[in-house]
Automatic annotation (TrEMBL):
Organism of derivation: Nymphaea colorata (pocket water lily)
Pfam families: TRAPPC9-Trs120
InterPro entries per UniProt: Trs120_TRAPPC9, Trs120_TRAPPC9_N
Lineage: Eukaryota, Viridiplantae, Streptophyta, Embryophyta, Tracheophyta
Coiled-coil positions: none
Highest taxon listed in the record's lineage: Eukaryota
Protein name from the UniProt record: Trs120/TRAPPC9 N-terminal domain-containing protein
């Protein structure tokens, strides 16, 4: 009898085509607000290539010339709270976190310098990320 080893949780054939994005709460974000902010992101799990354009000008050699711009899409996997890095990340690039998004609820953390410092600290473990952005919600007039 053959024994079948189960795949790791979270692993699928389809998962290899997704860009993994760590979504990190910055400061104290109420759970209900965090769910709302994460829901805003989840609406963008699939972005049609026809809705975006290449940033290369015509005279540059774009690595994206053979992409199906009329029918292709970018797929994102938002990991709320991030994930642990793994020694396998270097061998399986689909496991790498390629972007970090910070979500901050400004009424609970009014000092923007502290927000920037906390976001920089929270995104530091994700050395494979190519893009880091922090979004701050519900600012007051002074902010």
């Amino acid at each position: 009898m053959q024994t079948v080893t189960p795949m790791e949780p979270d692993v699928s054939i389809e998962g290899g085509c997704m860009i993994r994005v760590a979504v990190l709460p910055i400061g104290l974000v109420p759970k209900a607000r965090l769910r709302d902010y994460a829901a805003m992101l989840s609406r963008h799990q699939r972005v049609e290539l026809s809705a975006i354009s290449s940033f290369y000008t015509e005279h540059q050699k774009s690595p994206f010339t053979h992409q199906p711009w009329d029918s292709g899409s970018l797929r994102f996997r938002f990991l709320l709270g991030g994930t642990q890095t793994s020694p396998w990340d270097d061998f399986q690039s689909c496991r790498k976190i390629l972007a970090v998004i910070g979500l901050c609820h400004l009424p609970s953390l009014p000092d923007l310098d502290v927000v920037a410092d906390q976001f920089a600290s929270a995104s530091r473990p994700y050395s494979s990320s190519l893009v880091q952005r922090c979004f701050a919600f519900c600012p007051n007039d002074a902010q």
